[in-house]
Amino acid sequence: MAPKLTAVAACCLAFLAARSALAAISPSDADILNFAMNLECLEAEYYSTAINGYGLNSSTLGGGPQATGGLKANLSPDLIRITTELANDEINHVADLRAHLGSAAVPCPTMDIGSSFTQIINKALGIDGFFPYNTDTNFLLGAFLFEDVGVTAFHGAIPQVTQKANLELLAGIAPVEAYHAAILRTLLYQKGLDMVVPYNIRVFDFVQGLSNLRGKAGDGKDQGIVAPPADGRNTSYPFANLIPQDGTGKVFKRTPDEVLAIVYGGNSTEPGAWYPMGMNGAINGSVATS
Ligand SMILES: *[C@@H]1O[C@H](CO)[C@@H](O)[C@H](O)[C@H]1NC(C)=O
Ligand SMILES: *[C@@H]1O[C@H](CO)[C@@H](O)[C@H](O)[C@H]1NC(C)=O
Ligand SMILES: *[C@@H]1O[C@H](CO)[C@@H](O)[C@H](O)[C@H]1NC(C)=O
Ligand SMILES: *[C@@H]1O[C@H](CO)[C@@H](O)[C@H](O)[C@H]1NC(C)=O
Fold first, then answer.
1. Nearest Cα to 179, choosing from 290, 78, 93?
2. For atom 3 of ligand 4, which residue has the closest CA?
3. Tens of pLDDT, residues 176-190
4. Are 67 and 117 in contact (CB under 8 A)?
5. Rounded distance, CA 98 to CA 94, Å?
6. Angle formed by the axes of helices 256-263 and 136-157, to 10°?
7. Residue 195: exposed, middle, or buried by beta-carbon count in 10 A (0-12, 13-18, 19+)?
8. Is the CB of 267 inside a 6 Å radius of any atom of ligand 3?
């Protein structure tokens, strides 16, 4: 009997090993902080490039490359002032996360903040040539695409963190991202009936197209900036839905894989869009993450 039992054990250990290779990894605090930092690197590059013409420096990038494709944006004086504040927050977030991580910090990843938007928006709305740095509206639409993703990523990440100091840090950053998203959503709502030039699509509908695309990659957890017609609010100027939430007053929560699917342009295992080489750190889509 003994040899047979050994054979059974060998079979089943091999089976378990294979299963655990397929099972999702549970990330450490450092993995989660690095994941958040990859998102913050993108946000910091987008805003600071738009106002300065250049993004993070070698020290804040942790040795990673500057994002490509971004330009100093053609923004109104008001939006320049608002964007300056957003940029400072995001640069500080990268620095805060990097300081907490110490030697565990990964460099900011390779990022595309130009043609990536053209591609994503083509996928969402079937239009060509969209560029985020041309006008106030385009710039807000570009920022809208990633800010809500950051907010939902923080809701997903925070309950996974174990150390109090890390929790404290993420709990301080997450509401700032929510403020940012709310500012963008409000500014877009106020422009809701404008047409996005030259596409002849209302801002309301443009935003809805972007939200639908994110919803597809992220398990339906998304909402545009107008209340649904089901509420009986189908008027020529619809009621606002400035806070995307689950119906119980809480923002949606996305898993790392749902976040990666959006920021990679559709598939969490295939780097692309904003992160052409994938994110740096253990949460990068090469292994599923719980
Ligand atoms: C990089 O940028 C940060 C944040 O703006 C600043 O504090 C730091 O002095 C800069 N470092 C270099 C080497 O320019
Ligand atoms: C709003 O109502 C009009 C008239 O009933 C209808 O034609 C239109 O499809 C509705 N729009 C939406 C987005 O449901
Ligand atoms: C993502 O890409 C992988 C590898 O190319 C593929 O097996 C998988 O079906 C794709 N998933 C989705 C949701 O498209
Ligand atoms: C991607 O994640 C895997 C699995 O967690 C890890 O082994 C690999 O080093 C990561 N790649 C990068 C570039 O960080």
1. 93
2. 282
3. 999 999 999 999 999
4. no
5. 6
6. 160
7. middle
8. yes
Classified as helix, coil or strand, 61 is coil
Span from the CA of 42 to the centroid of ligand 1 (angstroms): 17
Instruction: Name the residue among 271, 280, 276, 278 with its Cα closest to residue 107.
Output: 280
The pLDDT assigned to 179 comes to 98
CB atoms within 10 A of CB 29: 20
Q: Are 117 and 144 in contact (CB under 8 A)?
A: no
Residue 95 CA: nearest ligand 1 atom is 4
Phi-psi region of 265 (alpha: psi -120 to 50; beta: other; left: phi over 0): left
Q: What domains does the chain contain, in order, with CATH numbers? A: 27-263 (1.20.1260)
Question: Best of 202, 208, 234 to mutate for ligand 2, by most ligand atoms within 8 A of CB?
Answer: 234
pLDDT over 90 (residue 23): no
The reply to whether the predicted model has a pTM over 0.70 is yes
Could you check whether the bond before residue 198 is cis, i.e. omega within 30 degrees of 0? Answer: yes
Contact 287, 24 (CB under 8 A): yes
Rounded Cα distance, 129 and 276, in Å: 19
The predicted model gives 201-222 an average pLDDT of 92
- Residue 10 CA to its chain's centroid (Å): 43
Question: Is 60's pLDDT higher than 70?
Answer: yes
pLDDT band at 235 (very low <50, low <70, confident <90, very high): low
Q: Is the CB of 270 under 6 A from ligand 3?
A: yes
> Which pLDDT score, from 0 to 100, does residue 233 have?
52
Give the mean model confidence (pLDDT) for residues 255-281.
97
Task: Determine the average pLDDT of the residues in 149-153.
Answer: 97
